[in-house]
């Protein structure tokens, strides 16, 4: 499965895998794809350094990349405390009451909330980059808008390609103007932050808009047929995130979240602002229902919502409070029905792709094999 | 572009075109596809007879079909007057006020509203079938659930295949149980009544669920690349509706609706209950905004909403009141940028499909041509 982009990056298959877990990222690259480690959870540079060391030691010399979350809009001199102060009392009360209603235990004294707003701040992302540029990463992706010009320049000096996610052709064009090398077209069905245009429509629209820049299709891809469909739409590769969450290498194995993911159907996700303040697809839970309820206080804008719910989410996750427990994931969750190794998932994708090509050749009446 | 289903129906290409316009339906079949005439607007049997005569005379002996709207739930002995009586005064007032706000003129005395709820009633659909079964139709499609058992049996006696639209694997399984021959998997991005699962995820899910029944992919398809993608997902053909609206053979040519369709981007549609009471994708207008406004009265359930707005929509369409003027259409509207003949659109689809297959063969490293 070779496109211009996969050749440029020296990977066997044009399958890019985004994951927060180093073991998954390394396994994707070893399997012949391109593993991309999500950096957002590394608020301490040393933690990121430790995990990049691990990836470097387990990737068998294969290429890999890093994904950061740099907000498109730069906010100068605003601290976490400033943002905290902007949160209305009514919303804090709603969090407290909802947690109490479900009997969610408190964190132990001094125990930190794992997921902090700081990971979304440019300053923290820059610290992550300072660490990452010491490693031979081949790709830097940004999940929120184009990275700042100096970051793009710094990446290009190091021969690192820069990718950015886009939910519309307009966003994609902004990325091209910002000197981005690869656009990830993130369809409505994708997990995490996503727009309203479905992959079937979005992918070719973005391909046409930014031509000749390469486009990766994201959203709704979890089988070789879907890989084939994305490539038929003009993408130079696919960008998969959800599918790896239930891999045995993921740090979620045997957790309550994994059980919920394995049980969920394609209709069990919701595009909600409950997580960050911007629409993000995730498992639908009683927590997202509470935030999306027109009789509730509603969500706050980014970054307030993320800060508001950070500790609550840590508690829900730590104590595995099932009715409230969720995770960002796409509609492809319906295909995630068993825990498998990254290699097994990868083999399934590449074999399914070959079968889909066989079928296309038959339908088109081509003789070739 | 040959699949088992296209061979069974004797068409050159596995492209099914749904349209309310006889000239478009006939042109699709003549071009080598399968034209399906929408019957919902024919409340008088003689009108349907006249138009089926026309299709029969212009289809050059090629196969074609009919699409009816038979509600899944049978409501016995309920008249239009009964339904009228269930509409709250507050909602009638909202319609009157909204029309007044935009200065929408009244219809002339005795002038009938063109679009009536009656077209959605089983009794009317049965009258349409009585007419249609006198013609050599090869396919009967139903847009709302499975048709009643006696209708399926009647179709099968006449060697007519029965198709039904589904927005989820669960709906598709119900169709299979009802003896349906073909499932149309209608993705989130499609025009008209549609669910929340995008085509990229829905198509293979429905294919797997109803195997070995053939599945047509609907939603987001307007180019040969998208046809190829849908077939890669396991569909035995594609079902296109939106794309024909801006064809020169359509009865909308040069109208204000056509101008709006040509100008609209993929982000200019909305999935709203404003039209019928069930979520249907359509152009976003100040009319849909008014109904979707949380400060408004909100929409009524089907069939009340359709009856409530029928006259208003006729007035808006007749007088081409631009800010309120809409039509059901999918996200593919962004690709509809010029008025072209059905044949030109068809050639574009088939050539684009061949190019997409060429590209797939290259990416897969196959030698064949």
TrEMBL record, chains A, B:
CDD domains noted in UniProt: NPD_like (cd04730)
Pfam families hit by this protein: NMO (PF03060)
Family annotation (SUPFAM superfamilies): Inosine monophosphate dehydrogenase (IMPDH)
Domain of life: Bacteria
Keyword Flavoprotein: yes
GO function term, MF aspect, one: monooxygenase activity
KW Flavoprotein (keyword) present: yes
Keywords: Flavoprotein, FMN, Monooxygenase, Oxidoreductase
Full protein name: Nitronate monooxygenase family protein
Species whose genome carries this gene: Streptomyces cylindrosporus
Lineage: Bacteria, Bacillati, Actinomycetota, Actinomycetes, Kitasatosporales
């Amino acid at each position: 499965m070779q496109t211009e982009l996969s050749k440029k990056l020296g990977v066997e298959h044009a399958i890019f895998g985004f994951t927060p877990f180093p073991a998954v990222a390394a396994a994707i690259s070893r399997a012949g794809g391109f593993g991309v480690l999500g950096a957002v959870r590394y608020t301490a540079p040393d933690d990121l350094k430790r995990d990049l060391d691990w990836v470097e030691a387990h990737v068998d010399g294969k290429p890999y990349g890093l994904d950061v979350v740099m907000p498109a809009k730069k906010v100068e001199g605003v601290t976490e405390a400033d943002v905290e102060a902007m949160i209305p009392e009514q919303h804090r009360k709603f969090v407290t009451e909802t947690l109490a209603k479900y009997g969610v235990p408190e964190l132990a004294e001094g125990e930190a909330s794992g997921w902090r707003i700081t990971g979304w701040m440019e300053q923290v992302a820059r610290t992550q980059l300072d660490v990452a540029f010491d490693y031979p990463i081949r790709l830097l992706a940004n999940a929120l808008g184009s990275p700042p010009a100096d970051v793009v320049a710094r990446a290009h000096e190091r021969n690192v390609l820069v990718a950015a996610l886009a939910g519309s052709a307009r966003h994609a064009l902004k990325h091209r103007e910002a000197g981005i090398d690869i656009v990830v077209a993130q369809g409505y069905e994708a997990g995490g932050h996503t727009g309203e245009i479905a992959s079937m429509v979005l992918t070719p629209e973005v391909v046409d808009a930014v031509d000749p820049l390469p486009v990766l299709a994201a959203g709704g891809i979890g089988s070789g047929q879907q890989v084939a469909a994305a490539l038929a739409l003009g993408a130079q590769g696919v960008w998969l995130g959800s599918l790896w969450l239930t891999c045995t290498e993921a740090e979620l194995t045997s957790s309550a979240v994994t059980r919920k993911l394995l049980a969920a159907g394609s209709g069990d996700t919701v595009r909600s602002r409950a997580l960050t303040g911007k629409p993000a697809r995730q498992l639908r839970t009683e927590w997202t229902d509470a935030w999306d309820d027109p009789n509730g206080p509603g969500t706050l804008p980014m970054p307030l919502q993320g800060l508001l719910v950070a500790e609550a989410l840590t508690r829900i996750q730590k104590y595995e409070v099932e009715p409230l427990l969720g995770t960002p994931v796409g509609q492809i969750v319906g295909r995630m029905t068993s825990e498998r190794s990254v290699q097994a998932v990868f083999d399934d994708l590449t074999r399914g792709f070959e079968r889909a090509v066989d079928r296309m050749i038959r339908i088109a009446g081509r003789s070739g094999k």
